[in-house]
Design brief:
Layout (H helix, E strand, L loop, with lengths): L41 E7 L8 E5 L5 H15 L3 E4 L2 E5 L3 H10 L3 E3 L1
Parallel strand pairs: 1-5
Antiparallel strand pairs: 1-2, 2-4, 3-4
Length: 115
């Protein structure tokens, strides 16, 4: 009974599923948004189609949770591949099947790539 947690209330609005706090005061999302970037990353490449109307998306996953680093890397990859893309949590999504170009770009920068 001591670890009772509020499941739903109209008083607070939406509640974060990770920490149980209201989304405006979420404790888990503010943690490690500027994590240090290791000198050598191990990026994981994969292709996804689910939930995108049959469109193919290349996902670069396993990246550090650092907003500045992710945005800069996204811009570099979009220029190198000539496509659109977006940042999602610790992953970058690029439009199309671009695994070869992304792999070449990341290995050229000295990062390890799996997939």
């Amino acid at each position: 009974m001591a670890d009772r947690r509020l499941v739903y209330s109209t008083k607070f609005g939406r509640v974060c599923p990770g920490c149980g706090w209201p989304t405006g005061e979420c404790r888990c999302s503010s943690r490690s948004t500027n994590a240090p970037v290791p000198p050598r990353l191990v990026a994981k490449l994969r292709i996804e189609k689910a939930g995108r109307g049959g469109k193919t998306v290349t996902v670069v996953d396993g990246l550090p949770r650092n907003e500045v680093f992710l945005r800069e890397l996204l811009q570099e990859l979009k220029r190198a591949c000539g496509c659109g893309g977006a940042v999602r949590e610790t992953a970058i999504e690029l439009q199309g099947d671009l695994r070869d170009r992304v792999r070449d770009h990341l290995t050229g920068k000295g990062h390890a790539v799996k997939g």
